[in-house]
């Protein structure tokens, strides 16, 4: 989130730009068509600042670093997912977390289960020893 806080006048001025879909106190949401156009112009060699100025943005309001930051993010999205990425909401999709257990072979499942059993047995032994030490400490206390 941006450190810049837009006042009411700045928000109204930004909302009047046809390339913006929404403005809050701290963020600007750009229209997908503008993002695509900006990325294509940038890939042809046009600078981020020039692109934003040519499309009616006041860089004094949005900040001089915002055009570069936006285009860096948009280029990455464009290269990974194409133009459709600007029209679809991708947040929360495509987990890159732990692979599903459904994809494991029987041998892998067995190996994983054996490792878990060994871990739990060691944990039980440790807890038994800890309880014994606590009992001895209680006895020695009195």
Give a structural overview:
It is a single chain. The chain contains 6 helices and 2 strands. It is mainly alpha-helical. It folds into 2 domains: 79 residues, no CATH class; 41 residues. A two-stranded antiparallel ribbon has the order 1-2. α2 crosses α5. The radius of gyration is 28 Å and the shape is elongated.
List the helices and strands and how they pair.
Blueprint: H1 8-15, E1 20-23, E2 28-30, H2 32-43, H3 48-54, H4 59-62, H5 66-81, H6 106-141
- Cα radius of gyration in angstroms: 28 Å
Helix content: 55-70%
Structural class: mainly alpha
Strand content: under 5%
Number of E-type strands: 2
| CA-based shape | elongated
Catalogue the unreliable spans: none
Short description:
The chain is mainly alpha-helical and 142 residues long. Helix content is 58%, strand content 5%.
Main traits of this protein?
142 residues, mainly alpha, two-stranded antiparallel ribbon, 6 helices
